[in-house]
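Notes from the pairing session

We agreed to fold both candidates in a single pass and log them together. This is the raw record for the first candidate, unedited. Please don't reformat it; downstream parsing expects exactly this layout.

Candidate A
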Amino acid sequence: MFLYLLGLLVFYYLYRWVRELPRVPDKGNKYVYITGCDSGFGNLLARHLDKKGFRVIASCFTEKGEEELKKACSGNLITTHLDVRSKDSVAKVAAMIKDKVGGRGLWAVVNNAGVSVPSAPCDWLTIDDYKHMLDVNLNGVIAVTLSVLPLIKKARGRVVNVASVFGRISPTGGPYTVSKYGVEGFNDSLRLNMAAFGVKVLCIEPGFFKTNVTDSAILSKNVQMLWDRLPQEVKDDYGTEYMTKVQVLIKDKVAKMSDGDLMKVVSCMEHAVAAVRPRTRYSPGWDAKLFWLPLSYMPTCISDYILGREAIPIAKPMQ
């Protein structure tokens, strides 16, 4: 019986591998719009798709990001400035893309731009902290998508949204998981809405990887700034040892958990853009596959217990 089940499993994965091999033709006439190309996944994806022959429109937040990407890629790649928080910036880039793609439409948009700070326990934060991140990680994704959706419908193309395993389970406080849950909800609703138009909507849910999102220096500076501005009564609730242990957690555990092979994520992005039959969801990273996603399917009492055991104790727990 075990061998029979093993055989079925092997057959399933072999069948899926063969089925997912074919790639779309005529890449040289397919435009792909990528956000957040200054560094990390977006930067690598822009380079990778450019080498594959796609017409890449890479948006960056900084001039330095644009310049470095131009030097590293072919003359076919187009760079542009984009601030996903700005309606005018989003509309300006969308108008430029409309002029470039013409009647063929836009093959794909990859919503990759995102930030991970401010992040901290919920009672350390203000509503402005939440708004700051949601404007980038969620509202920015929606704004960019809607700005080019008519062009994607014309091409019967793809929308690729970069969420996170933290869009499936929330082990920390703050707006990051809220924003990623929002991306998951937008992705699911858009996928159903666009199916009748032949538009595919795909979601990337990475685990921990070495990018600015998991950069220990950025995270440590952020949490120290948030701690310093707290009222003394809140500091007393948590205790000074709490802050020390948070810094150790960031510098030690987060760094060790983060995978340095960013191509695991970029390969999933490329497949979502280029495969004839892409997957609805991709979960790059062994931590995502073997821990975070299985944990997200468990009953809440079990996932809360597991996450609670790893939580840093506070100075004044309720009796």
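Candidate B (folded immediately after A)
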Amino acid sequence: MDTGFQSSGMMWFFKDRGFDDKSIHDMSKKCKQLSDVDRERASETWDYLKSIGIPERKLPVVIGKCPKILTLDLHDKLVPMIQCLATLGTKPKEVASAITKFPHILGHSLEEKLCPLLAFFEGLGAPEKQLGKMILLNPRIISYSIESKLSQMVDFLAGLGLSKDGMIGKVLVKHPFIMGYSVEKRLMPTCEYLRSLGLTESQLHRAAINFPEILCRDVDKTLRPNVMYLESRGFSPSQIAAVVGGYPPVLIKSASNSLGPRIKFLEQVMGRQINEVAEYPEFFRHGLKGKLESRHKLLTRKGIECSLSEMLECNHKKFLLKFGM
């Protein structure tokens, strides 16, 4: 370990706060400027981070991930950044939670990074009230380059027919984690796979708007196995296209815990055919215990026959009125 670091007083600062030798060594290698930090100044920063709501038991993890925080000027750098982040949040602990998740957020410049980022998203039509929620939910966004990463994401979504003056911003707010994925390695291959299943461009457009998380999933690990499962249950290629196009989350639901039990109930208890699911893919959206079973019992008791959409599309009050219950 650097002898300057050992004699700087920072060694004892860390020892007093429960850091072991390996952690201290790793931090000194990660951030050479630590040896120049005054112990009293580090203590002031530590106490300030506690005061904004970061639990003391989590501070070693926060500092361990980003020791650079202790080298930053408290009043010129950290306080303004945290105050700005606080204006984005609606709950007291949101900022502390964001820093705990991604401590490096404090190492970025307020003027050069956070402000341009907020302006970028506002320009895409992201609702102002949701902007803060998005960044605090996924604080890693602040580390992404607008030019090389985020602009590429915007162009990709625009290629799916989403407008740059409103719709893209809403999608990014709804699912900010999509920005962490590679357009070339993940999003484009997923879209190509969906096209290969028979989805139209308008269906892809709707999937990107309503279920952007589908685009983030790995084809071979998640999507293809679910398609193979549907094939094994007797769905034809055209029926699979209809089901996926109508309700894309079918591709990311558990085959054993979600799809299987519903198909089994459909066929064995309700006595229906899978072609009915192709006609009403949102069948997979409804709860098995809370909705399918209870409504089927009520209809059976009354001797009523109806389509899946008639049975499930309305809320409980309308369902009872519709069937005179």
